[in-house]
Amino acid sequence: MRKMLLTLTAMILATIFAGSVMAKTTYKVAWSHYTGWEPWAQTEQAGTLKKWGDKYGITIELSPPMDYMESINLYTAGNYDACVMTNMDALTVPASGGKDSTVVIVGDYSDGNDAIVSYSGTSVADLRGRDIFGVELSVSHYLVARALAMNGMSEADLGAFVNTSDSEIAGLFVANRTPQTTVVTWNPIVMKIRQERGAKVLFTSAQIPGEILDLLVVRTDAPEELKKALTGAWYETMAVMSGKGAPTKEALTFMAKTAGGTLAEFEAQLKTTYMYYTPKAAVEFTASATLAKTMEFVRTFCFDKGMFGPTAKSKDEVGIELPDGSVMGDKRNVKLRFTTKYMQMAADGKL
Amino acid sequence: MSAAREENHVIYCLDMVKAYGANVVLDDIDFKVSRGEFVTVVGPSGCGKSTMLRLILGQERHTSGTMLIDGREIYHPDVTRGIVFQRYSLFPHLTAMENVMIGKLFTATCLELLGSMETSRDEAMYYLKKVGLEDDAKKKPHQLSGGQQQRVAIAQALIMKPEILMMDEPYGALDPYTREDLQMFILEVWEETGMTIFFVTHDLEEAVFLGSRVVAFSQYYSDGRHGLKHGARIVSDYDLGRSIKSTEVKKSPAFSDLIHRIRHESFEPKFCQSVKAFNQTHPDSFMTLTEEQGAVAAEVVESI
Amino acid sequence: MRFFDNKNVNQQMPQKEAQMQMLKWIWSVGVNVLSRIWNTVKTFFSLHYCPSRVAKVLLAIVPFVLLLGTYIHFSNKRHEENPRDKILPTISQMYEQVKIYVVETDKRTDKNLFVDDTLASLKRLLIGVSIASVLSLIWGLSMGIYPWVRSTWMPFVTFVSIIPPLAILPIIFIGLGVEELGKISLIVLGITFLMTRDLKIAVENIPREQIVKALTLGASSWAIVYRIIFPQVMPRFIEMIRVYLSPAWLFLIAAEAIASKNGLAYRIFLSRRYLNMSLIIPIVFWITSIGFLMNFILKKILDWKYRWYVDIKNG
């Protein structure tokens, strides 16, 4: 009896021990629907993610498509190891929340995906006194602020910025056909509403190229394996996407379906999304001086809006490390790190 | 019978039937009540005594036959017939005084309302005094005891000086002492006002003690219609005289004998007397039977 | 004590025996105390326990203290790992944020945001609930009283009251706009039908005897409505408002989340854009306090104006 118990205990212990050795560590990646992020669905579907995970001896688990803000919040809370987001939200949510985050991939910038649309007017100057419907404190809001600044105006020249859920913007624009109705939003909503009779596009992100960036952010203390595997998987998919043959078409069709539209719609959206299909192009952009200039605009906007929290004394509150190692803002509180390291490895084929 | 001859009868029913669909509750009722009578109505559960009350009240309409109140057909409850229920007679959101007064306000015209508020108040106070509750005028019903509530309800009905005061098991929820107290009280009111009272109760002793006339309804009788479910009829009808009795009466053997008899005639399912044999000793009681009913009934009597 | 002294002094017991006695005494006292404690504990957890006033207050505080304690514990834990944590802000972080929100004037709009938000939300809520109240009162009373109104509207109201308003939100906003009208309409649509249905039931629950009695007292139809039915339905109606204030808040929050430029829920959803829990938590607390206060005021009105109803209900 005693012997049997002992054997049993030994067996159980052995199983647990063996299990812990054999099981690969699982890392979780959160994502949400957006033209520039649909490729993540493709990396999973095509098994690319698994392949690269296996290569680095880890398991990468892609979340189901989530609500955008919720995915960032959960990443910040520590429930995910990586998450897709814009440069602005990376700064105001995880970084200003003390979550040290590294931008592993700069995937694309919005090249017309975000736009200010109205039923009347020809230029930003016509926005004077109007109410604008859009998601407040989002990249849409940033777009409006930049548009106004470029035209020598400020938000004080507007009526009100009416915080509107992105799910209601299209319906609202269609239902209120008054000349004054003005919305600011992103794709695929922009695509839909600009087709409305009389809709006029007053300003788009194509006029501020390289400022609204779509990134893959990984927690800085995550192991190199995760960062490398994700980068590897991403650029393998990018290569497929930018190709010409049947696999490209197949991949694009799948992504269009995931995004909830037709292939034609998805291709139209890709036209207003400046994708860095090659790691080389991404490295070039990330290492350029444009990035520093952009992040300066962004952090100024965020600080002005109080998005760094009540205790923030200046826009230097959160340190942003640039690829050359220089730091914008507080050097002792670097929480957002841009790096070309992994994209460079991809470009060099060293992954 | 002509209506003229019935002028003295406050309630007059001839061949009256009340049915709910196929379910006949009251079957061919012949019934008349003289002015100033204190009618107590008894009968087993489901015998239709409360239905009878609702018909007289005007809350429901009879199905066929004749029913006249004061020689008139009636369609709705109105001020000529006051009512005291076992519960819910008083309006819970009004004080005792307001409850008594409200009938006066309902019936006053706009002009009168302006002028006669004080008069109404005085009149209500008069009735509250009469029921011995002048000190509780400002209390809401829930602050009064069950007996006090029924006193207010009686005052509330009396102020309208109705032709008939209807009472539907008014003392059913009271303790024996309060009940006797209120029995004496209603007798005093009856003596003083001389009004007609139609008093439904399930308590035989109460019925025999209070009534100048005791009417028993019952569905337990036989008119030869074997197997057919028929409605209730008046199976006995006693004249007890209009003199006021003292509570001592309750102890007399005659009193308990009568109770015993009514219980036997009306409440016992096994005792199915023939329509012909109904004990209707009250001078106002009458029964019209169709020839067929009469014939069948006679047969039944013989067979017994 | 006496027991021990007597034996010791009078009978001059040997040392050892005295010690034994003392031990016995201590033992019996110990057992006594323990059994008393045990009985107290046993009573406390039984259904016979009658808490005193003080005990009631103390017991009521316990869950709040537990909640606060749990929060502070996890907040501290997160801040040890990351001093800038935004998810469970410390009390002082919230204090800083609240100070700015409540005291400072917004540069752009030149308004005190706290006052502005509170008034905007309260205005929407109160107007919405008021309109819903008046509509349901008229409608519910008519349905309770007039058979033709009941027959015409009851199936419709029953059917429509089941539609979840949040599911058809886009229709409401597209049809009525996202301005104040749309927001108030959402509250109105959200609670009117339910309140109407409940009011009709409240009218039907007035005993038939009351109506018959009023008729025998010479009341006209109109007098029955406004002297008998209306005053008796009023207290139930106030209770109903107490109940439906919660869904009204829910619809207000949903409305402000969709499109708004001010309001307490607007502020919450705006703060969510940068995970500013140090403002969200105090606002949630503030909304809860307002709701609690409204509930309290309605209860007081009921106690004060409709004492008879409260008394009857409490037996």
Describe the structure.
The complex is a heterotrimer of chains A (351), B (304) and C (315). Chain A is built from 14 helices and 14 strands. Chain A has 351 residues and is of the alpha/beta class. In chain A, helix 4 packs parallel to helix 5 (87-95). Chain B is an alpha/beta fold and 304 residues long. In chain B, the strands form three sheets. A seven-stranded mixed beta sheet of chain B has the order 5-6-7-3-8-10-12, sandwiched between helices. Chain B is globular and about 60 Å long. Chain C starts with a helix and ends with a helix. Helix content of chain C is 82%, strand content 1%. Chain C folds into three domains: 2-45, no CATH class; 53-85; 100-313, MetI-like fold (Orthogonal Bundle). In chain C, helix 5 (113-145) packs across helix 11 (264-272), helix 6 (147-162) packs across helix 8 and helix 10 (221-258) packs parallel to helix 11 (264-272). Chains in contact: A-C, B-C. Chain A binds chain C through residues 69, 72-73, 76-77, 89, 92-93, 96-99, 131, 133, 135-138, 155-156, 160-165, 167-168, 171-172, 174-176, 302, 306-307, 309-311, 333, 335, and chain C through 82-87, 93, 96-97, 99-100, 108, 169-170, 173-175, 177-178, 257-261, 266, 269-270, 272-276, 278.
Key features of this structure:
heterotrimer, A: 351 residues, alpha/beta, D-Maltodextrin-Binding Protein, domain 2, five-stranded mixed beta sheet, 14 helices, 44% helix, globular, B: 304 residues, Rossmann fold, seven-stranded mixed beta sheet, 8 helices, 12 strands, disordered N terminus, disordered C terminus
What is the H/E string of chain A?
A: HEHHEHEHEEEHEHEHEEHHHEHHEEEH
The count of strands of chain C amounts to 1
* Count of discrete structural domains of chain C: 3
Please, what is the average pLDDT of chain C? 89
Q: Largest sheet of chain C, if any?
A: none
Write down how many β-strands of chain A occur, each being a DSSP E stretch of 2 or more residues: 14
Largest sheet data of chain A = 9 strands, mixed
Q: Which CATH first-tier class of the largest domain in chain A would you pick?
A: Alpha Beta
Pair with the most extensive interface? Answer: A-C, 41 and 33 residues
H/I helix tally of chain A: 14
